């Protein structure tokens, strides 16, 4: 033991400790917690009859398989350029409907069909296949492309903005096509000028959709815009479109203007104060004899402000008498 202990790797201990937490041992021991697919045994039934789902349940589960298969085929074939949401929405709705029917379905003997298929083994074929569809749809954020009924049911009807976006895209694409077909050598600034209004319109619509849905713009729209932007800047080599970093521009604008404002006020104040300072020198001379210290401080203050603005911002406003003397002499 003495020798063995140092050789036992730490991860081994961790694994031994971790395994029970992830296994379904507790569940398996508790038979009554498991949903049972063993219904009441009728006369003349064989074991196969008992352990196999009834025909009603087999049918509905086959329908799920068919629907998921149709959706999968559609999603894979429309992966590039991506039209997952737009062209597979009907398949998706079908999967959801059939799955809902399946969960509610009861066979002739009164057993819910789902009890034959769900939570019985570690593979969970039916629910995993369904989960795959749900996850893919959610990942594409496809719901945001379509209207939903007041009761929350998804329709295959695209939202108004998305319809307009698709129309704008078709137009822009048409313009691109015209220029491609006209002649390749003609692809220069003229093509950019010709298609720019359409391209801008599409871009604006995209921004509008982005404002409405934020992160949840559906993948078809995002990808369509991405491709169009690439065509625009790579293929047609038009000026890279102004990304609407509107606030960034505003920010730069303000930063650029600040020094101008500063110098403007510095100029205005200094010309005013120069006049004042000249007057106050006279006054200071008058009051010097009567040793009115407050007044001379004040004049010093103004002249130091003047020098501060013409030389350096960080100059201290104290020691007024020095500055005053410099001006006077
Ligand atoms: C087994 O399941 C039953 C009913 O669901 C529950 O009352 C019981 O506490 C469970 N036993 C264990 C050991 O989990
Ligand atoms: C899947 O597609 C096939 C062929 O288009 C169709 O016959 C079948 O009804 C579809 N399945 C479902 C569940 O809609
Ligand atoms: C929602 O409403 C529509 C019609 O308004 C209906 O066809 C559909 O079954 C409803 N869905 C749910 C889940 O109630
Ligand atoms: C889609 O929405 C339009 C309204 O924009 C409506 O006229 C049309 O009936 C809807 N189509 C379906 C299939 O719900
Ligand atoms: C290319 O297009 C320009 C204007 O669009 C036209 O003048 C020129 O004849 C075209 N060349 C060819 C080879 O089609
Ligand atoms: C763009 O191409 C057209 C037609 O080929 C030509 O007339 C025009 O001068 C070109 N413009 C530039 C800026 O190259
Ligand atoms: C746009 O397309 C490029 C390559 O074609 C890709 O690298 C990039 O991630 C895409 N952007 C978005 C937002 O999809």
TrEMBL record:
Domain of life: Eukaryota
Annotated spans, Disordered: 306-329
Entries under Pfam families matching the protein: OSTMP1
Compositional bias annotation for Polar residues: 306-323
Residues making up the signal peptide according to the UniProt record: 1-23
Keywords, alphabetical: Membrane, Signal, Transmembrane, Transmembrane helix
Transmembrane segments: 246-269
Name of the protein this chain belongs to: Osteopetrosis-associated transmembrane protein 1
Protein's organism: Orchesella dallaii
Upper lineage: Eukaryota, Metazoa, Ecdysozoa, Arthropoda, Hexapoda
